[in-house]
Structures are given as structure tokens and as C-alpha cells.
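Why do we bother with holo predictions? Because pocket geometry can differ from the apo form. Keep that in mind while you read this record for glutamine.
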Amino acid sequence: MIVRITRSRFLRQLTLSILGLVCALTFAACGGESPTATVGNPAGGTGEAATTLRVGTEPAFPPFESQGTDGNLEGFSIDLMNAVAEEAGVQVEFQSLPFDGLVPALQAGTIDAAISSMTITAERAQAISFSRPYFKAGLAIAVQDDSSDVTSLDSLRNKKIAVQLGTTGAQEAQKIEGAQVRSFDSAPLALQELANGNVDAVINDAPVTLYAIKSGNIPGIKVAGTLLTEEYYGIALPKNSPNAEKINTALNTLLTNGKYNEIYQKWFGSEPPTLPEAAPI
Ligand code: GLN
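The structure, written out:
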């Protein structure tokens, strides 16, 4: 059974508009150049390589992408995307979008790329393209601190599970027999539902759940069991993107010249694992 709990479309649009306005004002206040000077590629995959990349992200996924207290975007992915752009000699203009709106926006050509901890999956690769993998992650089950009966996916049968809409965690939850799956617009909202005691578990990307616990953002929860899956994040691009080669070359350079290591250390405080050249999908 799937219960979709989500804000009304109106509220969602309103939130996004406000977010957009705040971003625009923050940008103007910082004396940045006009963000409207975009030479994007409205047709999606077939035009010229862009000099300004419009990059979509859902900034509610710390420590990868989030909005800092000053309203600016921050996180591992934001630093990495800025480094990729610098290396490739292009500008970046970030756009905040709901996670489940990123693939449609790439297909419609309203953004040139998305960096949003998006797992490279065979299903998504039919609709869009991905860069080479830039991060190794996986799913984890989160439960309340005092819970002891959830140890694996199997033990989640007939339980209430909160997930983020359109994610690999949501897909995994939907495979579980008898589970009541509740979908939320963001991972923090799903984790909060668990902290409030309204669900038995959350299936979400392990690094994000671990960060929420460590940072004290969501108190009273813990990770049950270890990583459920091995997943690789890629920069999402429209099919036949004219920017794909530039982005991949830049990523490869950053992975070998120490810059990737530096950004990884900054956000995760450890050495990065070695990444495969392609995701095993
Ligand atoms: N890695 C997960 C996915 O691709 C979740 C990503 C996210 O919520 N930003 O579905």
C-alpha cells in the first residue's frame, strides 16, 4: 500500500518561488553578475555546449546539497560542481528543484545538468545520461533509538516506512511485502516522521541519514544494520548532452589532481574510496 503524503502542488510551487526569490536576492546582494545571462541549451541534448550551465539540485540533502543559514547553497556536490565548472571553463547557475522534478527538467531542456546525489540506475539511464560516478553511497534503514526488531529489509514486512518521493529508497521500500510506504518531498521530512514516532523506519541514502544523526538535526534515531545497497552518484545530463565530454574530463582531472580529495575531506573528514570508471548497472 502506498500513501502519498505531500504538500499541495500550490504550496510546493509557492515554496519554490520563495526559494527562487531568496536565491535571486541573495545573489544580487552579494554583487554577483546577473544570473540571467544564460547561454543554455533549451532544446536539451542537441545544441552547442553551454558557456553557463544551468544546474538543478534539490537542496535538502546535507552534507551533499543544502541551503546554508545565509541562504546560499552549500555541500559536497555544490563544491564539486563549482570545481568541475572551473576546470571546464564554464559558469554555473544553480536552480533549486524538487528531486522528482530533476529528470523531467533535464528532458524538457530547462536545465543543462543536475547534481543532486542522484544514483546512476538503469531505469534513469533510459531517460537521461549520467557523467562518470563521482560518489559511492548506498541505502540504510533508520529506526528509532529504542527499536530492536528491525535488522534487515525482511524485518520491515508489514511495517510503516517513510521515504523520499522518487528515490531509490522509495523503490526499495515498495518491494517490501505488506509495507505501508509514506512518501515525503524531502529526506529530512521522512526522517522527522520517524523521530516523531509515526513510522517504524526510513529507507534513505546512508551518508545523509548518518549526517542527520551526527549533526543532531534529527534526534532519537539510529541506523539499523549496515548498507543495503551499493550505489554511485552521477551528474545527470540530458541524452546526447553537448556538455557531457567537458564534464567527464573535468571530473577525471579533479579525481587525479587532488582537488576531489580535498573536497571529500572537507565534507566527510576521511579519505575517499576509489571509484569505478562506470557504475555497475
Ligand atoms: N540517491 C538517491 C536517489 O538517487 C536519493 C537522492 C536524493 O534524495 N537527492 O534516488
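DSSP finds nine helices and 14 strands in the chain.
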